[in-house]
Amino acid sequence: MAWLVPDSAFDPDAHPAPVIGICSALGDHDSGNHWHVRGQVLFTRQGCVRIDSPGLLCLLPPSRAAWIPGGLAHRARMRETVDYRSVYLDATAAQGLPEQVTILDVNPLLRELLERIAQAPFDSDWRHGANHHLLGLCRAELQSAQRQPMLLPLPRDRRLARLVDGLDRLPPALGELARQAGASEKTIGRLMRRDTGMSYQQWRQQWRLLRAVERLALNVPLGEIADELGFASDSAFIAFFRGMTGLTPGVWSRAATPG
Length: 259
Fold this sequence. Notes:
CATH topology of the largest domain: Jelly Rolls
Number of domains: 2
CATH class of the largest domain: Mainly Beta
Helix content: 25-40%
Number of strands: 9
CATH architecture of the largest domain: Sandwich
Distance between the termini: 23 Å
Protein name: Helix-turn-helix transcriptional regulator
Largest sheet: 9 strands, mixed
CATH superfamily of the largest domain: Regulatory protein AraC
Domain HTH araC/xylS-type: 157-255
Keywords: DNA-binding, Transcription, Transcription regulation
Radius of gyration: 19 Å
């Protein structure tokens, strides 16, 4: 196991073992665009991570895990302090895991498995004995873990470039977006459906959900979040959040709190 300090270089592909784990706590960190041959399980004990990959924005909330397939270019951005564990799996160890970035729920068993694997020495034997069974159980838990709706597909058309460039701002209403893009509302709807599989309204609501989760993880007051996301009242925001997640913002925040 390695404790990764800020600005230290680490290459998971430079090690011969089929499984490599690291632990770290980083603040305001940007990994830059990169890729590795190994797949990566990124588990956040505390804090929130944005993961950018081609055509997709993913949000990794506290106490969840992201599966990032090997060979996929991506960028991880962390706000404030993120306490995390990373487990890197070679192609054999990663068999049966998704072929795209996936955000996963983490139950107590999976949490403990990821913790133990992340803290194991780099020269651990993962092909025999107790570690072999530990890895097999971890892979089974990853395969069966509930997937979280923390993904936002991004439009590719150049007329919608302002949306992709301005993901920290509330996307405009459809009529305003059409005016900015110089296209009809019908055309905007067709482009969004083609590129993201969603209507524009569905896409805007999904953006709101990811932004709300990110701001809750940063302990931003509820009223401030509601205002930022364009809701007329706190109760309207709470109703929206419950409709999207099945939980109120308060219950979600308590469930995401470490311990």
